[in-house]
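input
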Amino acid sequence: MRLVLNGESPSDRERKRFVRALSDPRRLRSSGGYLFKSGLVGDTVHISIVPAIAEGERLHHYDIAVPDEQPIIGTVSANGEFSLLFKAGQESMDETDRSAWRRRFRGFARILIESGYQGTGTLDWITRQIIRESGIIEPIPQTLIELSEGGPDDH
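output
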């Protein structure tokens, strides 16, 4: 999979710096965590990310864009916990919809793991509950590493 970060293809150095920022407890605390959207277009994972707080002001998800019309909307908290949310009518999801969301979620996790993510990558309870209720992934992952694992239909 390819990564597009904030609208550009990052160099290896930029990619590692990005992943290090998500793994480093001091950086997470100083930024107040991060807000992001992530989408999957073909085999390219698009991540647009901003610090939760910049210049003393709280930033918002509506300021963030990716080219996927149905992105994952997420946060990395100041303690490194991930929240991955999506807008979908769970009662109207069929297996094609669940497969598309599974690919988005796993693509996001895989690109971070393959880029050297070193944090614990714990998924918050809201993320685990949404995954459970939507039926997109079983068993319910607890971490990014578990989320990144999957069968051949998910690649």
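quick obs: The chain has five helices and seven strands.
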